[in-house]
Task: inverse folding
């Protein structure tokens, strides 16, 4: 990059002074080294190898807590990917990548970002279950991303049904109260939305959702899913009771965005029931 021209050096007076020439060469060497470092940094992301995993997770969790703004979710995923580059076998990073991708996929209006988020979430969920098959987080968020992918891809949805059931059964086996009974909610949705030829069964759906309410009575999304299932079964009075229970309770601290989503869906369902 930097080259010495002997003729120009002579004109500058360096040719006749060894000490000065050595100083000059030293400066040039430093310049070359500094330029190389800057070039190397520009070629790829900076990985903070010595940063504790706990610090990266705390940063990501803090951003995710502001998930009402999807830019914060995207920033949280960047922080987790950087941490994963340095700690590729960390279970707590892997399942969070799956979780945050699911939320992004479920809320973005960009179809390309939605599809990528669910696929990235599936990959991260699979990694988490390989790292620790006995904990519920990896199984739950893997199953959730399977479900998200099924919502936007009919062919994938038909093949994902058994995968979703498998992952949610694993969650219930590990901890039936995980995420306030959300595994029961996921199973209820599978049986409610799947075609009968692929195992769809409204009665089973209602059964799973009612089980979920027993372990997660303050789970707003579970309440609205049960209300939807009741409405599908033409049990409008029961659906209305779930809507009233949902709208009269306070959101669980930290789950305000999910509660707001549930209330919005409940209001829409209520309008349909009245028609």
Result:
């Amino acid at each position: 990059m930097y080259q010495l021209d002997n003729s120009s050096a002579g004109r500058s007076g360096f040719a006749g002074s060894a000490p000065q020439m050595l100083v000059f060469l030293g400066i040039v060497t430093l310049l070359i080294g500094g330029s190389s470092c800057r070039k190397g940094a520009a070629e790829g992301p900076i990985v903070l190898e010595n940063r504790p995993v706990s610090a990266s997770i705390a940063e990501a969790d803090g951003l995710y807590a502001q998930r009402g703004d999807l830019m914060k979710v995207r920033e949280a995923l960047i922080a987790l990917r950087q941490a994963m580059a340095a700690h590729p076998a960390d279970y707590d990073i892997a399942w969070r990548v799956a979780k945050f991708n699911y939320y992004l996929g479920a809320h973005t209006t960009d179809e390309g970002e939605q599809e990528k988020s669910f696929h990235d979430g599936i990959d991260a969920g699979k990694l988490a279950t390989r790292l620790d098959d006995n904990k519920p987080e990896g199984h739950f968020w893997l199953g959730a991303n399977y479900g998200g992918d099924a919502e936007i891809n009919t062919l994938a949805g038909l093949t994902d049904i058994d995968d979703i059931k498998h992952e949610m059964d694993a969650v219930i086996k590990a901890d039936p109260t995980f995420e306030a009974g959300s595994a029961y909610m996921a199973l209820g949705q599978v049986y409610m939305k799947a075609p009968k030829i692929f195992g769809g069964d409204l009665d089973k759906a209602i059964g799973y959702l009612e089980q979920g309410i027993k372990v997660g009575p303050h789970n707003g999304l579970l309440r609205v899913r049960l209300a939807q299932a009741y409405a599908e079964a033409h049990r409008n009075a029961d659906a209305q009771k779930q809507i009233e229970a949902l709208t009269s309770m306070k959101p669980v601290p930290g789950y305000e965005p999910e509660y707001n989503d549930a209330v919005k869906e409940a209001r829409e369902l209520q309008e349909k029931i009245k028609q």
User: Anything to note?
Assistant: Confidence is low (pLDDT under 50) at residues 1-47. The chain has 13 helices and no strands.
